[in-house]
Design brief:
Layout: E1 5-6, E2 11-13, E3 16-18, E4 23-24, E5 28-29, E6 34-36, E7 39-42, E8 46-49, H1 57-68, E9 75-77, H2 83-86, H3 89-95, E10 100-103, H4 105-114, E11 125-127, E12 133-135, E13 140-145, E14 155-159, E15 164-166, H5 190-201, H6 205-215, E16 222-224, H7 235-246, E17 252-259, H8 265-279, E18 286-289, H9 295-304, E19 305-315, E20 318-319, H10 321-332, E21 339-345, H11 353-360, E22 367-368, E23 373-375, H12 384-401
Parallel strand pairs: 8-9, 9-10, 10-11, 15-16, 17-18, 17-19, 19-21, 21-22, 21-23
Antiparallel strand pairs: 1-2, 2-7, 3-6, 4-5, 7-8, 12-13, 13-14, 14-15, 19-20
The chain binds MU-OXO-diiron (FEO).
MU-OXO-diiron is lined by residues 80, 82, 84-85, 150-151, 169, 226-227.
Amino acid sequence: MKNIQNITKDLLYIGSSDRKLSLFEAVYPVVDGVSYNSYLLVDDKTVLFDTVDKHCCEQFFENLKAGLDGKNLDYFIINHLEPDHSALIKKVIEKYNNVKLVCNAKTKQMLAQFFEFDFDIENNFQIVKEGDILSTENHEFTFVMAPMVHWPEVMVTYDKKDKILFSADAFGSFGALNGNIFDSETELNINEYRRYYTNIVGKYGTQVNALLNKASSHEINMICPLHGVIIKENISKLVNLYSKWANYEAEINSVLIAYASVYGGTQNAAEVLATKLSQKGIKNIKMHDVSMVHHSFILSDAFKYSHVVIAAPTYNNGIFIKMEQFINDIVSHNLQNRTYAIIENGSWAPNCASAIKTKLETLKGSSFIENKITIKSNPKTNQEEEIEKLVNSIVNNIKKEG
Ligand code: FEO
């Protein structure tokens, strides 16, 4: 059965949600599923905006057929070629073989990496570049290139008439849709917006800023992303958050404590540190055991918090593996402007603090609270003063920045 909804009188939502997927991109847990959004404009000319993941193929074609209601498919705008949106491109051309594929030159080049066409599609292409315009009788679409948000071929499309931005992956979120397709109908889970942004495009702050700058020259009443609900009421809230994330600005002046603990000694030190921070007035402290929590959630909090405490055992004369993975994740996502404090542990040669610092100091704007703590197996009563000193340094640093 078709499952489509009107967004405006001539724009339809024809996407689908997946609640069976365990790992998005084979990496990220999606406990609330994920949506793959596709849109269909039914003007004098018809326009399809992207497709869906292959797992949603049957529903998609049922929706597309119902949405077209006997009309031809005239244009197919490909904003993003990642397979969660492009899997059905070949099938669309097979079913609607006169359709014009509206895409940029990079998309055309990359299309051949994903599909072997056993028919000639050269005449199907309408290649567009920055600022080009496509008109259907009542609508005029402008194309804005957005390379690396999230792949090099990405572009976004702006509808001048209804002031709608088809934003590709930008302004998307993990989470299936639950009947409600607008942000006015359901509460946004900002934690999942942040986890999606930071893990998927967090590395590309410069490119996200470039897109935000270009988009700011258009009046936008609605954002239609490729994942998550359509944004009408939270446009400025999300744009402000994107600006913070793209500039690697923390959302709150507080402390994320990421710890790993094999037998409890490091955890004990981390817990005592958290208690003392709280007693000094620090609110909203967040602790993660990096061995127990998927790294995508911890990275997301690292983008949110101004200060990050790393507490880890020494392992194989280096950093405990789960902590090393988390630190590598921070580095590969280019997180900048954070203040770090380090607690190292070890039963015979506690020496991982310098290796942790060496990795993190490669990031622009990293700074370090200098009085690191070294534990041998378990923190000792006579180390409470040391922890107290570290807490005072963190608190003073937060006050200085706040
Ligand atoms: Fe949702 Fe970059 O694909």
